[in-house]
Amino acid sequence: MDLDAITRYADVKDLRFPYYDYGSGPVVLLLHGFPDSKYLWRHQLQPLADAGYRVIAPDLRGYGDAPKPEGVEAYAIPHILADLTGLLDALEIEKAHVVGHDWGGTVAWLFAGYHPERCLSVTGLTVGAPGGPGRRALPQLEKLWYVFFFQNEGVAEEWIRRDNWQGLRAWTREKGDLERYMQELDKPGALTAGLNWYRANFKPASLNNSGSNPPRIAVPAMGMAAQEDAYLLENHVKGSEAMIDSSWEYHLIRNASHWLMLDQPETFNRLLIDFLDRVE
User: Fold this and answer.
1) Domain ranges of the chain
2) Which of 198, 231, 236, 263 is catalytic?
3) How many CB atoms lie within 10 A of CB 49?
4) Is 102 considered catalytic here?
5) Which residue of the set 36, 59, 83, 102 is catalytic?
6) 3-279 belongs to which CATH class?
7) Predicted pLDDT of residue 202
8) Tell me: the pLDDT tens digits for 182-219?
9) Is 114 an active-site residue?
């Protein structure tokens, strides 16, 4: 697929966001995390379009070719949520199925919680709903050592880049789109912008990076965890059920790393499309 041919641009306030726009039908809004971009979803575009959906996959602020504002607070979740409502408004989209991975998963859950009127459903990938019990368990916090390390401005950037990106290679376990990450993060301001998501939204003084009273989820919801995820335990996603006031289903994707949509695209696509079809 020629990804350039399906790339469009939307102006949201004073920022211009690139996004993939492919297919027709109910909208599926795909949200990536760190250190990805809209390119993460390349294996989902055609299957979702073939199933009768219109895919909108933007570069979120700080990533890919999206704007990279200066300053940590520019990456606080309220700004990200405003970007999404602005994007949907610019495209005249009233409602969408919202699917998010990694940081995009946290954004998807919070968008569904705060803006249920804009959501047909929500799917969280590898990340559970804020407020769920799986986020606060000690074994999970131990796996999130890097979140605390990334708070160190300058030090984290140096460690990730040093010796031809050895820190990034080690952190990713050479999974995901490693070569692309190195190219994207080498752009001016890109690495700091990506790390600023952690600095703006995960306060070391708190065990809950979404605030003390995260919203409950009132739209149909699904969660997927990856069996070989190096960062997030299964219960991080499975425990989301405690925050769901609508229908809920959960799947564990076997033989998959944190990037489950890359490692097991056929299984992932089948489960996602089946869920979306049943929501309709």
Assistant:
1) 3-279
2) 198
3) 18
4) yes
5) 102
6) alpha beta
7) 87
8) 999 999 999 999 999 999 998 765 544 444 689 999 99
9) no
